Amino acid sequence: MKRAVSAAITIKSSIAFALLMSCVSFSIVAKEAQPSAADPVLEARVMKLSKELRCLVCQNETLADSRADLAEDLRGQIREQMKAGRSDKEIISYLTERYGKFILYNPPVDPTTYLLWFGPFVLLLGGLLLLFRYLKQRRELIIEQPLSADERQRAETLLRIEQGKETA
Amino acid sequence: MSRFVIPLVLFVILVVFLAIGLRRDPHEIPSPLINKPAPAFKLSQLKDPAQSFSAEEMKGKVWVLNVWASWCFSCREEHPLLLEYARSKAVPIYGLNSKDKPEDALSWLAELGDPYVLSVSDLDGRVGIDYGVYGAPETYLIDRNGIIRFKQVGPVTPDIWTEKFLPLVKELNQ
User: Which of A69, A76, A57, A71 is CA-nearest to residue A29?
Assistant: First the structure.
């Protein structure tokens, strides 16, 4: 028991260590997001667009949420380009040219993402088909068969006993 | 019989998916820049800021661009390997010193050795963004026409160097 516990602790700490190392090795420098009160309208636009983009360092975060250095730089880029009068679309294509479609938090529908978009529906359809087949098979298994004379007599005896109990 | 076969098949499929999926490094993002022209830049040199260096100057040569910084943990791990690759003279290695203080970068090179023909200072990380850098060290192999042929995210290990870089360098130099 004790050994199991200490083994669990070792595993836990080594996982923690591995996580720590992966952070360090990709040089994530967490920093407080800088509040920039310069232009609230522009800032809102920057935040809105960066919510649609992925932080490439901490991949499950949007650019808006991330405090990684790179995310801050990219937000800075977005801000600069917006100031220069570029449209959201132009900025997105600027970023995808450099970082690929991976930077889009909402994956676009294209041949590489068909499986992602339509896979679940294919699975659902498959499941429905299997369910349908199973139900059909099951219905075929249940066939009304008339009781034989012997079975009928046994059933009647049983019923009579039950009725006797109820009236008693 | 099929009572056992179906779950077994499902299990095997699951195992195959996991075996492939778990071996992939989620940090490796396919770069859209492969087989595209290397983004142009003109930056001042780290050791002599009065002089600049641009990617244009490398037209006609096969070269390697390594993105590094003194704050980058994995770069320290990669550094002795780069020194070794540079000594072999297989291909010239240029450094893009990303978002670093020049004095920190210079003392790093003084302390650990300098594998680069020269390094340029990308103080604000703009050129890094143009190259789609998201986790230093990153290393690009660029051909004579200025086309990026290979990109490595993370340290260039001896395996990657001998199996990916060297054969490509040889091919591109022909």
Answer: A69
The position carrying tokens 């978002």 is B99
**For A23-73, what is each residue's pLDDT tens digit?**
444 444 444 455 555 678 888 888 888 888 888 887 788 888 888 888 888
The full DSSP string for A21-71 is: HHHHHTT----PPPP--S-HHHHHHHHHHHTTBB-SSSTTSBTTT--SHHH
Residue B124's closest chain A neighbor by CA? A73
Residue of B nearest to A97 (CA): B32
Contact A27 B31 (CB under 8 A): no
B135/A96 CB distance under 8 A:
no
Beta bridge partners of B53: B43
Rounded to the nearest 5°, which phi and psi values hold at A142?
-90, 100
Rounded Cα gap, residues B69 and B106, in angstroms = 10
Global ipTM: 0.72
> What is the total residue count of chain A?
168
Mean pLDDT, rounded, for B36-48: 89
Task: Name the nearest CA neighbour of B138 among B41, B84, B69, B71.
Answer: B69
Q: Do A27 and B99 touch (CB under 8 A)?
A: no
- Nearest residue, CB atoms, A27 vs list B26, B32, B73: B73
Subunit contact B135:A29, Cβ cutoff 8 A: no
Asked whether the beta carbons of residue A73 and residue B136 sit closer than 8 angstroms, the reply is: no
Token duo for residue B72 = 């980058």
Residue among A25, A26, A98 minimizing CB distance to B129: A98
Question: B162: Cβ–Cβ under 8 A, 6 or more apart, which residues?
Answer: none
A14 φ/ψ angles, rounded to the nearest 5 degrees: -75, -30
